[in-house]
Amino acid sequence: MPRHSHAHSNGHAYSPSQNTFSISPHRFQPRTRPALRWRRQLIVKIAAIAFFAGVVLLLIFPSFRDLLLPTLGLGFILTDDPTLSTVRHYDLNNYLGTARGWERGERILFCVPLRDAEAHLPMFFAHMRNFTYPHHLIDLAFLVSDSKDQTLPKLKEYLTDLQNDPDDRMPFGDISLIEKDFGQKVKQDVENRHGFAAQAPRRKTMAQARNWLLSASLRPHHSWVYWRDADVETAPPTILEDLMRHNKDVIVPNVWRPLPDWLGGEQPYDLNSWQESETALALADTLDEDAVIVEGYAEYATWRPHLAYLRDPYGDPDVEMEIDGVGGVSILAKARVFRSGVHFPAFSFEKHAETEGFGKMAKRMHFSVVGLPHYTIWHLYEPSADDLKHMERMEEERKMKEAAEKAEKEKAAKLANNFENQNEQWQKDKEAVAAAAKEQETKKDKILVGGEAGPHAHAGEGEAAGAKKSHENGIVDTAGNEVKKE
Ligand SMILES: *[C@@H]1O[C@H](CO)[C@@H](O)[C@H](O)[C@H]1NC(C)=O
């Protein structure tokens, strides 16, 4: 074997066992077959070592992959590898969204705008745990803005619990917590939030919040975007699949809210999902360029068909209705709608802003926008100041009634007590009378008490006297009231 290596290094055969000066008989011979085979083997070995080294390099230095593979025309390998650190390849045609996304591993970006929402978080996370759409396919994005309470720290606590849940179906995908204040001047309480004057500025700020949240968290691998408010009280855990099955670009359920019984039990809540009307279009034409029409206020009578009012509790939940404006409580949209540039206008777009403007803009770009009138979710009931006053009055009335009932009871008890006393009194009287009668009997011959004439004889003497008579007949109920014999 050493002969071979020497042969390779100096170009001629050399054998240490032979005389250095002798002429090798092989010298001018053509190369032997073993030599050729050996050379081929060497090339194969070098290639194998190079390949092995290459693989090791690829494994150790991911950036090397990004450099090497495309230059070798192997770039297609990269598209399936999500762990690359610097270069990522996406074919957005794979993320358009289909009717049965959960079977195809389609990812949903779940967006939740939050503001002073600490109180709603326990309920919200109870919903999160119940979602039937595979949790690992859902990425969460929270925007916490202008909050004075403990929304952010509490949110982190709940998320930590959720992601560390021992049940491996619980944890969600990526989570983004985004903080951004917009300096909202409108206070968050119900009265301020729902007042007419506050609507346009409030909606414009909300629109900005949604756009910030979405643009910061939407990734190319998201096929869907779901917007959900934290204060939804009741919703089917299958809502994502239920909405997705319709395979629409933008789809919303009907949103109602439960009411206390004294207010009628239930009420439409979200009036922002509607169909455009001629009246509203005519109204829009008369308005200033920057005006924003808001629904549900007497100031703008639009006579639009609202999704909320078309609800039939027994209707088919799959019935669809084309709409133009959408409410923001629960929107499922294909990510491509946003990728196409549709957003939540923070200005007057066709005289609308935020989610209603979003619906209009999506329509304008020929996306399908649909509402489900008979598929209902329930928003939390938050009493208004008027409701609170009313409830306070009701509470007072209740207390007064209770107090009155208590007084009544006490009075009755006292009466019964008095009656007992009177009975005792009567017993004494009777004995006294009997004694007197005996005395008289002994004196003379008349019987004073008794006989059928008793009641008449004692008329006007009161109940105790009546009871006395019955007593004599042996018929008195447990309360001491007289029971008529005949
Ligand atoms: C979650 O599911 C459980 C069990 O079905 C149910 O009792 C609970 O009310 C649900 N929670 C919410 C917030 O819907």
TrEMBL record:
GO terms of molecular function: alpha-1,6-mannosyltransferase activity
Keywords for this protein: Golgi apparatus, Membrane, Signal-anchor, Transmembrane, Transmembrane helix
Biased composition (Low complexity): 454-467
Region (Disordered): 1-26, 421-486
Transmembrane domains' residue ranges: 42-61
Pfam families: Anp1
SUPFAM superfamilies: Nucleotide-diphospho-sugar transferases
Keyword Transmembrane helix belongs to the record: yes
Annotated Gene Ontology cellular component terms: mannan polymerase complex
UniProt name for this protein: Similar to Mannan polymerase II complex ANP1 subunit acc. no. P32629
